[in-house]
Amino acid sequence: MTMKITIDLEACKGYACCMMEAPDLFDIDDATGKAILLVEHPTEDQREQAERGARSCPANVITLQQIG
Ligand code: SF4
Prior knowledge:
22% of the residues lie in helices and 24% in strands. The protein has two helices and four strands. Strand 2 and strand 3 (35-37) form a beta hairpin. The longest helix has 10 residues, at 47-56. The chain is globular, with a radius of gyration of 11 Å. The termini are close together. Keywords: 3Fe-4S, Electron transport, Iron, Iron-sulfur, Metal-binding, Transport. GO terms for molecular function: 3 iron, 4 sulfur cluster binding; metal ion binding. This is Ferredoxin.
């Protein structure tokens, strides 16, 4: 099963909760103050971290999709 992470960067408020909850998958761009997606397709082992990161976002702009 393959998962895809997307971030609506227009709506990202740079709270950095995603990076704190899932540092392997998200970072913050110091220049823009917005999130950077480090891994678009997390592995099975990273699934829990991806879900935690998405849940942690106060702006609710991280989407997880099952793509196969
Ligand atoms: S937690 Fe949400 S709003 Fe905050 S930086 Fe991450 S994606 Fe952006």
